[in-house]
Write a structure and sequence with these properties.
Radius of gyration: 22 Å
Number of helices: 17
Structural class: mainly alpha
Helix content: over 70%
Low-confidence stretches: 439-445
Number of strands: 2
Order of helices and strands: HHHHHHHHEEHHHHHHHHH
Shape: globular
Mean pLDDT: 85
Strand order of the largest sheet: 1-2
Length: 445
């Protein structure tokens, strides 16, 4: 094997490790959602208090800690940051299992969010420096595949683990003493991350930074702000359009099982199995197809290729989400959910990848962290709530959740597409300029 080929194999190996880290992070993130009953019972809390554990405690700190951690990723060792991040969120997941009160569980969930915020900005930057741009979309999509796999496994395997340990009642462990079965769940799911952190640190090297502007690796925040202002029609419009689209994607993923339960009387385990398979297979395939198309069109000289694929993703998602409000039979509804999830997955890797193509090396982690901040606050924070508000205040019927999905998609996806279309010209200019300025991506000239 040639040196170049051997190097590329190694870089794909790193992507697989990063994908595994992403998978583990999503299992640790979502496992709490399977423990509603025992956690509420253990601490005598309400649904609202539980929702704060599942949502706010994690999402707000995950979103806002991304920026300072991304600045570290742009200046120092990304390999070390990722290793420390994996260790930290895995340790915090363990502490969730040792929590003795609502307050300590809340603090541990904050810790999980802070630790996981270190992963994507550093991972995106490492992958961008490791691959020729003609392969970047595929590499980032495989990394992002961890989201689909992690979400699917949380439904498919997590439920079985929870069911098993819940039957155990109390467990007497060495050193830790007596704990409840639900607490053991957190301890079990934290172990893979602790193992992966050591393996990652020992087997991965920090890649050489490419596309550096000026001297050194540090850029003051004022220059980053000035760069965003200069390219706002490309950067800001892309982030805004994507965040609105992600409102639909998050809502579909979160409310999909509930739609199946309320509309077709599936049991929660049945709905979890169906949605787990849809996410793991449908969204996973969508990620790979989206990355492949983005790379092919970019290699053909279309500097806005990633934006085009995202618009294709929106166009494919829209009719199948709208169809969910049309009183379908169960098989047709599941098929529409699967196809909508497949198309919605196209954007997963390349949405952040486009920002990498438009941004100098020393800003990449921070710019993509800004995207994750906005997408999480708007997409995760508002998306599911907007859908729930449609059910509660427009249709005023829990059974109308399919109509709520359809209505929110019919409004939000065209709005997101219009914003993305307005950014196309500016995206082409921004990507073209970075290609011409960076000799490491000369293969696109």
């Amino acid at each position: 094997m040639s040196g170049q080929g051997s190097s590329l194999v190694y870089h794909w190996y790193v992507v697989v490790l990063l994908m595994l880290a992403q998978t583990i992070s999503f299992i640790d993130r979502m496992i709490l959602g399977l423990l509603v009953g025992p956690v509420r019972s253990a601490f005598d809390i309400s649904d609202t208090q539980f929702s704060l554990l599942a949502g706010m405690a994690f999402a707000v700190f995950y979103a806002f800690m991304g920026l300072p951690l991304a600045r570290i990723a742009d200046r120092y060792s990304r390999k070390t940051l990722i290793t420390v991040g994996i260790l930290f969120w895995s340790a915090m997941t363990s502490l969730c299992g040792l929590a003795s009160s609502y307050a300590t569980l809340f603090l541990a969930r904050i810790g999980v969010g802070v630790g996981e915020a270190s992963l994507s900005p550093a991972a995106y930057s490492m992958i961008t420096d490791s691959f020729p741009k003609k392969l970047l979309g595929r590499a980032l999509s495989i990394y992002t595949l961890g989201i689909a796999i992690g979400s699917g496994l949380a439904y498919l395997i997590g439920g079985r683990v929870v069911a098993y340990v819940s039957k155990m009642g109390v467990v007497d462990l060495p050193i830790l003493g007596v704990i409840q079965g639900w607490q053991l769940t957190f301890l079990i799911v934290s172990l893979p991350g602790l193992i992966l952190a050591g393996f990652f640190y020992l087997s991965v090297n920090e890649p050489k930074r490419r596309g550096i502007i000026g001297e050194g690796t540090s850029i003051p925040p004022s220059e980053i702000i000035a760069f965003i202002k200069q390219r706002w029609r490309a950067i800001v419009l892309h982030i805004l359009g994507m965040s609105i689209f992600v409102m639909v994607v998050f809502s579909l993923n979160m409310w999909g099982p509930t739609y199946l339960i309320r509309t077709f009387a599936y049991t929660p385990p049945e709905a979890g199995l169906i949605m787990g398979l849809i996410l793991a297979v449908g969204a996973g395939l969508g990620l790979l197809v989206g990355g492949y198309l983005g790379d092919r069109w970019l290699a053909a000289g279309h500097y806005d290729s990633y934006s085009r694929v995202i618009l294709f993703s929106m166009a494919g998602t829209l009719p199948f989400t709208v169809a969910l409000g049309m009183g379908l039979s169960a098989p047709l509804a599941i098929a529409c959910l699967a196809v909508a999830t497949f198309f919605s997955g196209f954007q997963g890797g390349i949405a952040g990848g486009l920002l990498q193509l438009m941004t100098p090396n020393q800003m990449r982690g921070q710019i993509v962290a800004l995207y994750f901040l906005t997408a999480n606050l708007i997409g995760f924070g508002l998306g599911p709530t907007v859908l729930a508000a449609c059910t509660d205040y427009i249709f005023k019927d829990d059974a109308a959740i399919g109509k709520s999905i359809a209505l929110s998609a019919a409004i939000l996806i065209p709005l997101a597409a219009a914003i993305m279309i307005a950014s196309l010209k500016h995206v082409r200019i921004a990507v073209r300029d970075m290609v011409l300025d960076d000799p490491s991506i000369s293969e696109l000239r």
